[in-house]
Amino acid sequence: MLHAAWETAAELLPGLVGDPAGLSWAAPPTTELRMTCEQPAGNGVLPSLDKLIDLAPLGTNDEGTRSLLAVTITAAPAMERAERRSLLLEGLVHMAHAFGYVDAEVDLL
76 in the Ramachandran plot: left (φ > 0), alpha (ψ -120 to 50) or beta? Predict the structure, then answer.
């Protein structure tokens, strides 16, 4: 799902503002990929992500549960699908480490 969202933002949306070939980037675009619980529970607290999705492939978390995981990736807008997927996996591992999932590795995803 994150892969499809990133692909849409980087490759399809720029075409809506004009001819992408005629546009030049001031710098490589920055894309934030985020997983978050947007709707609070009945007590007003955001539920933890592990209640909604399986985070087991990331390993154990040494910082407790989270309602948000995010990573920012700066990369060229157009790239091969396999290259984007590889960069996404590396970004997810970086995100997991930053949010306490110290055992996360690319080969586990």
Answer: beta
Distance separating alpha carbons of residues 15 and 1, to the nearest angstrom: 21
Residue 71 gets which letter from DSSP?
A: E
Instruction: Give the closest residue to 109 by CA, choosing from 90, 100, 99, 97.
Output: 90
Question: What are the DSSP calls for 34-58, one per residue?
Answer: EEE--S--TTSPPPPGGGTS--GGG
Side-chain-side CA neighbours of residue 34 (13 Å): 8
Q: Of 10, 7, 43, whose CA–CA distance to 25 is shortest? A: 10
Q: What is the predicted pLDDT for the residue at 7?
A: 74
Contact criterion met (CB below 8 Å) for 32 and 70: yes
Residues of the chain with pLDDT under 50: none
**Distance between CA 25 and CA 10 in Å, rounded?**
12
pLDDT at position 88 is 87
Residue 31: strand pairing partners: 73
Helices and strands in the chain, H and E counts:
2, 2
